[in-house]
Write a structure and sequence with these properties.
Layout (H helix, E strand, L loop, with lengths): L2 H4 L2 E5 L21 H13 L4 E4 L9 H9 L6 E7 L5 H15 L3 E6 L10 H19 L4 E4 L4 E4 L14 E4 L3 H10 L2 E4 L4 H17 L5 E10 L3 H11 L5 H9 L7 H11 L6 E3 L2 E2 L12 E4 L1 H13 L4 E5 L3 H11 L11
Parallel strand pairs: 1-2, 1-13, 2-3, 3-4, 4-7, 7-8, 8-9, 9-12, 9-13
Antiparallel strand pairs: 5-6, 10-11, 11-12
């Protein structure tokens, strides 16, 4: 294991898209996305020593991620902000100015989660959608690096100087990006800095990293690798399993399917893999030791949780590190108490720090 692998970036999740529950699928007014509640999640993650926090982007659900990032950037001091941005949603020169401004407001703590989903009210086939994402990533990086742009593509046709507004470093913040279709993986290999994968078996994660290393190498590039997953840690394994079962105790399969369908990302290769893992799990919902797929019953996207006592959760994280993971984006329900539990029981056992 390299020194870099021994010191992963460990991040928490800001529930900006109405994704905070005591019982999955049962909306509680105090846990709905709001400036106050989501700010408190970010402050909790910062106070507990997390390196970064994902600020997800939605349309029908929750609150606006970019506006939130602007405000929370001056309410925090250390934690990095992994802002999700949907490619195509905003005119590129203005997007570059926004990103540079937020980076300045945060003192250089901005990182960017590139999203390639359909835009609200629009449907686009996977291949052209990822082509648009690829063009946006390329031009956005140039603008944030301070370069003039002379680009004539299928979706971006632009000749313009870089905006005067620059990031603190003068360079583009790192792009975190995930996707599992052929077009997505090629886009990641060509333009991303950190490839994000969803929960899978350790062997499954090792396999996708191996594939992506080969793809990136074909473009003369090296990537970092991140894992987006949930976590449930308790003093004993039995207590952790009980907490997992309690989390899904008030939802039925029809209600879960309705919740999953609300996401703009509800139909994708990645979501299909999460479904496959859930269907192949044992009677208790475990696909392998300490990897529980029950979360996927009531949410789209990342659908599995690392479940166990502090030593088991720590060892599972280290197993993923051995498989090649450099960064973890974790979450738990409800987000604030689970953030505190993970920090107290696991985070202090792992040497960690900002990835890039």
């Amino acid at each position: 294991m390299s020194d870099q692998q021994k010191k992963p970036e460990i991040s928490w999740f800001g529930a900006l898209c109405d994704d905070d529950y005591e019982f999955l699928g049962v909306a509680a007014p105090e846990l709905r996305s709001s400036w106050e509640h989501c700010r408190n999640i970010v402050l909790c993650a910062e106070e507990n020593g997390f390196d970064n926090i994902l600020l997800p982007s939605g349309y029908e659900l929750g609150i606006d991620a970019t506006s939130f990032a602007s405000a929370v950037s001056v309410a925090t001091n250390r934690i990095r902000l992994l802002l999700a941005v949907r490619m195509g949603e905003m005119w590129l020169p203005q997007l570059a100015r926004q990103m540079a401004t937020i980076d300045q407001m945060s003192g250089g703590r901005l990182t960017i989660n590139i999203i390639s989903s359909d835009l609200p009210g629009q449907k686009l086939e996977s291949e052209p959608r990822y082509k648009r994402t690829q063009e946006y990533m390329k031009v956005l990086r140039d603008l944030l690096n301070g370069n003039s742009v002379n680009y004539h593509g299928e979706f971006v046709d632009l000749e313009i100087e870089a905006p005067r507004a620059r990031t603190v470093s003068g360079h583009c913040p790192p792009f975190y990006f995930g996707g599992f279709s052929e077009a997505a993986k090629e886009t990641a290999a060509m333009e991303s800095d950190v490839f994000l994968t969803w929960p899978d078996t350790v062997r499954g994660v090792e396999s996708i990293i191996s594939e992506m290393k080969e793809r990136a190498s074909g473009h003369g590039r090296d990537l970092k690798y991140g894992l987006r997953a949930h976590v449930i840690v308790r003093e004993s394994e039995g207590e952790a399993r009980d907490a997992a079962n309690r989390l899904v105790s008030q939802i039925d399969d029809q209600q879960g399917a309705e919740i999953r369908s609300r996401s703009l990302d509800a139909v994708s290769v990645g979501v299909s893999r999460q479904t496959e893992l859930r269907e192949n799990s044992d009677d208790d919902g475990f696909i392998e030791e300490n990897l529980w797929t029950g979360v996927g019953r009531a949410r789209s996207g990342a659908g599995a949780a690392i479940v166990g006592d502090p030593d088991q959760v720590t060892q599972k994280i280290k197993a993923y590190m051995d498989a090649g993971i450099d960064a973890f984006i974790l979450s738990g329900y409800p987000h604030i108490p689970e953030c505190e539990l993970f920090a107290a029981n696991v985070l202090n056992k792992i040497e960690h720090g900002p990835l890039i």
